[in-house]
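User: Study the shape:
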Amino acid sequence: MIDHIGIRVTDLGKSIEFYTRALAPLGYTLLRKMEEHGVAGFGVGQKPDFWIHTDPRVTTKPEGIHVGFATPRRSLVKEFYAAAMAAGGTDNGAPGPRPMYHEHYYAGFVRDPDGHNIEVVCHEAYLG
C-alpha cells in the first residue's frame, strides 16, 4: 500500500493554486504548507498523501510523471477535469471510458503546470 507520493514542481505557489482547485472535487485540501522548505501536502481528512515540492538543485522543468487518483463516481471524474482545466491545466484526455484497460475504466487526464499527467479514474460499473 502506498502511503504518500511527492512530485517536483517549478513554482510552488502556482502549483498550490492549481492543485487546490483541481483536487477540490475529490475532497482534497491543502493540509500542510512549508514554504521555507518549498513543500506543500494535500489530502483528505488530516493526513497529506500527495506532496509537491520545489528543489533548488533543479534548474529545468522536471520530467513529467503520471499520478492517478481514484474516485467512486464518474461524475467526480468530470468535476475534476473541469476544475483542473479551469485552474490552467492542459487537456490530456477528456473524461470517458477507457475499455482497453477494463470494461468499467472511466478516466480523465490533465497536464499540470509542469507537464505532469494527472488522472482521476473510476473503476465502478456505470449504473445510469
